[in-house]
Amino acid sequence: MEQELFLENSYQTSCKTFIEEINENKVILNQTVFYPTGGGQPFDTGILKQGNEGFKVIKVKREQGKIVHYLEDTTNLSVGEIMAQIDWDRRYRFMKYHTLLHVIAGHLYNKFGALATSNEIYEDNRARIDIKFEEEVPEDYFSSMEQEIHKIIEGNHMVSTRSLPREEVENIPGSIKTVINLLPKSIQMIRLVSISELDEQACGGTHVKSTSEIGLFSFTKIKNKGKNTKRMEVVFND
Ligand SMILES: [Zn+2]
Fold it and tell me: Residue 143 C-alpha to ligand 1 middle, in angstroms?
């Protein structure tokens, strides 16, 4: 399996690597900085450089356990050494949104025992999260929620990852269980992402190092999505 460098260091923007396979416009590398679509986070775009030529990466997906890079054009590309480089502005924005969604989910779990049921980051600079509440939350709470979450972000909480055997993770109390139950039994080591004491979740996405990197955002929409579930949309202020 190719090395997934984005899991070790989400700030690495490029790597020297080797093309293992070219199939039409699809390329497989022996290690990559490109994040494939997953967990609500869109894929990275960028470029593969070979000699003096650049080849645009327009889509990245995980297919049968391998990370497949879709290129705009593979004419003149050959199996061998290349340099892989992601579009950092795009990735960094996704890292900030993704970490923000963790903060929101963690906060609402700690406060109400509410669970995030799904989330998505969109390519056009916005994201949404669906939260299922156990009980009715007074509507006026939602007008103060933004300020509460800004305070957490400004608290400069560190984000860290660790990997644990599945049976250990299954014994951790809290919201982790609901996610673990959805993972295929074949996955034995679980990657956990924690935001200091706020949130710990199984996740294979990319995150910023500290909540202060997220910056200011607004809830642009909060609407009902079935019984006791709210769909919340967020947008960065800058
Ligand atoms: Zn995550």
Answer: 26
**Whether residue 69 sits in one domain with residue 43:** yes
Q: Are residues 100 and 196 in the same domain?
A: yes
Closest CA to 40 of 122, 160, 124, 161: 122
- Measured in angstroms, how far is the CA atom of residue 161 from the centroid of ligand 1? 10
In the numeric block, which tokens belong to residue 133?
């509440």
d(CA 150, CA 158): 15
Task: Note whether 14 and 63 are same-domain residues.
Answer: yes
What protein residues have CB closer than 5 angstroms to ion ligand 1?
193, 203, 205
Digit-coded pLDDT (tens) for 101-132: 999 999 999 999 999 999 999 999 999 999 99
pTM: 0.94
In terms of residue numbers, what domain contains 120?
91-236
DSSP SS3 for 107? helix
Tell me the per-residue pLDDT of 170-201, one tens digit each, with 9 for 90 and over: 888 777 777 777 778 888 889 999 999 899 99
For residue 79, what is the DSSP state? Answer: S
* Shared domain check, 117 and 223: yes
How remote is the CA of residue 87 from the centroid of ligand 1, in Å? 19
